Each structure stands twice: as C-alpha cells, then as structure tokens.
Amino acid sequence: MIRASHILAFFAAVLLFAGCGAASKSGSSKGIRYTGTETFIKVTPQTGPEYTVALKPEVDLRSLPKRDGWYILFDGTGFDGWRGYCKDHVPARWSLDGGCMKLTSKASAPELEGGDIIFEHRFKDFEVELEWKISKAGNSGIFYLGKEVRYLRNGKEVSAPLYYSSPEYQVLDNAGHPDAKKGVNGNRMSASLYDMIPANPQNQNPWGEWNKVRITVKGGKVTHFQNGVQVLSYELGTPSWTEMLQGSKFAQVKNPLAFDLLKSCGSEAGYFGLQDHGNDVWYRNIRIKEL
C-alpha cells in the first residue's frame, strides 16, 4: 500500500535535488544527444540514513564518436558529455591543457570552483581505458559505477561524496604522497582498489610521467590494469566484497551510508568519474566500450 508519507517523501526528494543538475539537455556543440527524464529514488536502508539517488538524462552513446568499437569520452578538444558531480556544469578548475583534461590544484586557484566530474551516462558492464599523470605529491582517483546521492546530515540536505558509492582506482604519486604509506600493504598506492586491495605488481611511472589505465567490469567481476599489466581483480556483491568493506574506512560502523551504497555496488549501472583531491592532475585519451 502506498502511504501518504511515501508520496510526500518522493516530492521532498524532488525538491531536495533542485539545483543538482539539469532536468533535460538539448545537445552540445558536437551534436551530443541526451535521452531519458530526471527521476529520483528514495532508499531507506536497514541501518544508516535515508538517501535519494538521482537518475538524470543521459548521453545517447550513438551520438558519440566511435573508433574501433570504442566510444570516445574525451578526445582533448572539449568537455562535451561531462559535468560536475551533482552539478549541471564542469567546475572551473577543470580545463583543457594541450589536448589533456587538467584539474588545477586548489592551492593555485582557490577562487575557482572545484569538485569531482562524471561522464553523463551510466555503464554496467564495460571496459574503459585512459591515461593520467600526477603532480609531485599529488593525489586523485578514477571512479566507476557511481551514483548521485543526497542525504540528511546535521539537519541539512547535502551531496554524499562520489567515493561513497563508487569503487576507486587510486591515482597517486607513490613516492611523494603520504597516503602511499597508509592503509594496509600498499592498498592506497596507484592502481589499487582504494583502501581495500593493493595493486600487485606496483609498476607505476613516477610523477610527471604518463600512466595507462584499463578497468574492466563484467558480471560483477572487476579487473584493474596499470601500464599494460593486470594488478588486481575482485568480485562485487560477494561475501568477500562485504568482508573487504568491513575492513576498510567504508565499514558499516564507521560510515553506514558508504557501506550500504558500496555493498550493493554493481547491481545497477553507474557513472564513470574523476576525482578532485585538490592537486594538479591530467587525464587524456578516455574511451570506453560496453561488454
């Protein structure tokens, strides 16, 4: 039975997400088309706070350039199809730099808006490739299967960080950033599943040099590659996945919202995104194929 309180909660969710992304898209300078309408899903977990997931219009993949079976998400000439997480625009600290997508550090441009960015299509089974280079002592990350989530914190509706819902392929200057020595057995070093599985072997190129990424997700099985070498694999939705979460900073007792979101990660399609961790970082040659 649908209760009046459920109806009120749905409309509250609609109001909650006002200003968190456009309800529709009309296209772009490159002819990118969008499909779908904006909807919201209210979730009440067994533990932790209620939250709302926004499902927004998506890029129609058929309108993207395609080469050798790969959809081009970024070709070095513009941010078409990208926007800030829970925003309707690309934050100003993300810019084009010699055919690359660059995030300028917060320290260098404190007056400019920052934040994580996502590509406006949700993928479930896919293979993605890209390249990155980081500044000295820099930190960033690559997200996949993410959701746009808002919840009540201290009486105020806020956006949950993208990493609450998305596994993270770590991007880091291993030699210069202190996070490399934190965690367990190097599980915060580059190409690791952040705070859960270390990349092995650790074959990172140092800061200022390009590193190549490949991530595959198929039927819940995830594999990370760094510079052409497979460095880890795991399976979502399994008892071992839940066990890993409980041993990380996303454990239920430490962060019940992130635990609930990540525990069910992979059961639905999600966003591919790039992290603003406050440091200079460059990305290029981003392409994806559905599996």
Please supply descriptive tags for the structure shown above.
Jelly Rolls; 3 helices; 9-stranded antiparallel sheet
Question: Would you mind describing this structure in some detail?
Answer:
The chain is mainly β. The protein has a single domain, classed as Jelly Rolls, CATH 2.60.120.560. Helices cover 10% and strands 37% of the residues. It is built from three helices and 20 strands. The strands form four sheets. Strands 5, 6, 8, 9, 11, 16, 17, 18 and 20 form a nine-stranded antiparallel β-sheet that branches. A five-stranded antiparallel β-sheet has the order 7-10-19-12-15, with no helix packed on it. A four-stranded antiparallel β-sheet has the order 2-3-13-14, covered by helices on one side. A hairpin with a 7-residue loop joins strand 2 and strand 3.
Write the layout of secondary structure elements.
Layout: H1 4-16, E1 34-35, E2 39-43, E3 51-55, E4 58-59, E5 66-67, E6 70-74, E7 82-84, E8 94-97, E9 100-103, E10 117-123, E11 126-134, E12 139-146, E13 148-153, E14 156-159, E15 168-172, E16 211-218, E17 221-226, E18 229-235, H2 239-246, H3 256-263, E19 270-274, E20 281-290
Antiparallel strand pairs: 1-4, 2-3, 3-13, 5-6, 6-20, 7-10, 8-9, 9-20, 10-19, 11-16, 11-20, 12-15, 12-19, 13-14, 16-17, 17-18
